[in-house]
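Good morning,

Attaching, inline, the backbone tokens for the sequence recovery test we're adding to the shared suite. The designed sequence is right after.
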């Protein structure tokens, strides 16, 4: 069956867009043009679709043109000037939060700790709140000089004098509820700093080798081996044990948490299963001794690792061992759990910042919609002549 042929056509609609100013009540108009390309099953359909779309864009759209009397922008113009930067800013915000989350959660990226992620989220949230204010709340100033230039270029003209009785909501309005959602965004931004505030207030120490980076006596910790292994689909088992040496040189045993292998004598593999590189960690429980809080201690850990390796049509089980030596500064007993709660609060704050942004975007976009106090007036050939040369149009 042959593919259907699609035809394309272009159309341009030019007209005067006439407004009653919300600021002063004066009527003014400006030249507006929209050029579009559309498709259709026939050349005629394409031409009709293009013309219909260009007319729709002129009727429903607006250009950013200040009132020639008072220089004010109308609500729909304010929406048009704010919605695009707001949308772009939100896309950037989502990408940044996503990158921070992936870097923070990624177990092998030890240098980017949960604390670093919280600090980055706090900085991004603060920048977002400032951006929200600049776009959604700050009222653009009137532009009489810009209006005068457009009048001189015959792109803008006054139709009637100001009339306060016809003035509407006022120029450059702020959508209802904006202050509430700005407060939500600000509150969310403050919450993103919760982990850092807790660290300062409670004296918790950060450890770059841990994720989360705060731990105290009695907490379970996870340490990463310096070298990865290469095993069948990343399968492996670990058997750690170790000791902790405090600042007085006293050695304390640590309980290791084994990760058992579950492959037995056979492994069901898929067609795409291969040997792949895998970062390996060892989990242990710090001694539950409150006197260790606040001390910088040395951990000596031995880890046995067992893992299957695909060989031909089967697999071999291999064994290796590794030694981990780390220095940690311990916080208050079982502080890890409390720190994890602050991390959750920080994530909730980031969600609030994003939510407020999307709500504010919706409010900005709907500002002046449906388009009120505006009409479309056809452009006559005489409208392109100097003002004094135009014949009466009867408008």
């Amino acid at each position: 069956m042959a593919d259907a042929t699609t035809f394309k056509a272009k159309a341009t609609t030019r007209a005067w867009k006439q407004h009653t100013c919300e600021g002063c009540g004066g009527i003014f108009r400006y030249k507006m043009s929209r050029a579009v390309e559309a498709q259709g099953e026939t050349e005629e359909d394409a031409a009709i679709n293009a013309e219909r779309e260009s007319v729709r864009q002129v009727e429903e759209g607006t250009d950013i043109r200040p009132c020639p009397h008072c220089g004010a922008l109308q609500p729909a113009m304010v929406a048009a000037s704010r919605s695009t930067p707001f949308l772009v800013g939100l896309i950037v915000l989502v990408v940044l939060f996503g990158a921070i989350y992936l870097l923070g959660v990624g177990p092998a990226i030890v240098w980017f700790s949960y604390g670093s992620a919280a600090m980055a989220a706090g900085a991004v949230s603060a920048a977002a709140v400032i951006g929200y204010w600049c776009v959604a709340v700050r009222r653009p100033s009137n532009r009489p000089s810009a209006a005068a230039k457009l009048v001189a270029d015959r792109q803008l003209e006054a139709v009637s004098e100001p009339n306060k009785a016809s003035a509407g909501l006022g120029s450059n309005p702020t959508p209802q509820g904006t202050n509430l959602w700005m407060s939500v965004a600000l509150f969310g931004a403050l919450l993103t700093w919760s982990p850092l505030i807790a660290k300062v207030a409670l004296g918790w120490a950060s450890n770059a080798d841990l994720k989360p980076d705060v731990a105290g006596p009695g907490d379970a910790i996870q340490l990463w081996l310096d070298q990865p292994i290469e095993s069948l689909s990343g399968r492996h088992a670990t058997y750690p044990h170790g000791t902790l040496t405090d600042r007085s040189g006293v050695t304390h045993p640590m309980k290791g948490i084994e990760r058992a292998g579950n492959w037995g004598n056979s492994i069901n593999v898929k067609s795409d299963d291969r040997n792949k590189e895998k970062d390996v960690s060892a989990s242990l429980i710090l001694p539950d001794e409150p006197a260790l809080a606040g001390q910088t201690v040395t951990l000596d850990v031995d880890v046995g690792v067992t893992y299957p390796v695909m060989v031909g049509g089967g697999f071999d089980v291999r064994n290796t061992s590794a030694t981990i030596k780390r220095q940690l500064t311990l916080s208050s007993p079982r502080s890890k759990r409390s720190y994890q709660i602050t991390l959750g609060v920080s994530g909730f704050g980031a969600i609030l910042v994003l939510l407020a942004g999307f709500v504010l975007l919706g409010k900005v976009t709907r500002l002046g919609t449906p388009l009120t106090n505006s009409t479309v007036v056809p452009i006559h050939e005489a409208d392109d002549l100097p003002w004094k040369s135009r014949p009466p149009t009867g408008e």
